[in-house]
Amino acid sequence: MKQDIVNFTRSCIACQKTKIFRHVHSPLAEFKVPNQRFVHINIDLIGPLPSSQGFSYCLTAIDRFSRWPEAMPLTDIRAETVAQALYSGWISRHYTELYYFPQRISTDRGAQFTSDVFHSLAKTFGIRLSHTAAYHPQANGAIERWHQTLKAAIMCHTSVHWVSALPAVLLGLRTVFKEDLQCSPAEMVYGENLCLPSQFFVQQQPQAADNGFIKKLKTHIQQLRATPTSNHSAKPTFVYRDLSVRSHVFLRVDAVQPSLSQPFTGPYKVLSRTNKNFIILKDNKKVTVTIDRLKPAHLLLDNVNSSERKLDSPGVDTPSPTPSAKEPEKSAMPLPEKSPIHTRTGRRVHFPVKYRDFVS
Question: Where in this protein does the record put region Disordered (predicted)?
Answer without folding.
Answer: 305-348
